[in-house]
Fold:
Amino acid sequence: MADKPQEIQPPNRLTKKVRKTGGPAPDKAILRALNAAEDLIDSYQGWAVDDLTALWKAYEDHRAESGSAKEILTMFEIAHGIRGEGGSFGFQLISTIGDSLCKFLEGKKALNAAGSEVIKVHILAMRAVFRQNLKGPQPAMERDLRQLLTLLRQKVR
Amino acid sequence: MSGYDFENLKVLVVDDSRPMRSLINSFLHGFGVKDMFEAADADEAYKEVKALNPDIVITDWRMPPTDGLDLVKNIRMDMDSPNPYLPVIMLTGFTELHRVKQARDAGVTAFLAKPISAAALYRRLCTVIDDQRPFVRVGKFFGPDRRAKNRSDQYMGVERRRGH
Structure:
């Protein structure tokens, strides 16, 4: 017999703790948040270089091991972190490229030579973004890059 | 014009990336939150939930070896959970529809896609505070009502849910 759904109204803790007035206006709160994060955002490129180094190493290990599933998973996990962090720290193009690489790698157990080249293209693209300091919104470039990488992935499944 | 006063809020931030935890904490600090705590994985996070009894949890999804969904399930279902209704915001780079459904079915309160912005985090906090929907217990599910807001108030047709 199917369970009967039980609806429960939880205690309203948040409304008691958070007043809807008395704090800074939303625009001001958001500006303060950005100011608070400024130094951190400026430091991001240093950490990202470490991630790219790890990604390149995983790529080289994968080529040396003839494309084992373990290295593919490692690359996916690094790319997943990069896609989440890039745009969060002002480098939207990094998130775009990282997302494309994740889409290519997810679920794959093996890669051929063409597949390895796809990974290499993604890593080199990320390096170029940092080298040219392509920070901030780049909508046209982002659109073009996304289209290009999608075509590349489709050609090499 | 003034806005939300987050001064008394206690927030737990969970992410295996230290830069990401620092970024979210910086944003929260800018919003006026004073009590912020961190954890780097789901196991550590659940210990902090039991010790600190936070008001909101903001958690990443993928944090090997366990993950954000394991944390949500513990909060919702574990006998020792201090607050099974604890609002949980899932902050993740996974944005595919099936992932959103998976998070919802685990009992997540709200979903926020990475990369994040201060503005998006602010809006999501306000939404979670304003939209405190009822919880539903049915079968193996316990969590916020998964139906769209106000749908149960407006639906005028035959109730076809099992058990009715």
Residues 13 and 144 of chain B are 20 Å apart (CA to CA). Strands of chain B lie at 3-5, 10-14, 35-39, 56-59, 88-92, 110-113, 135-138, 141-144.
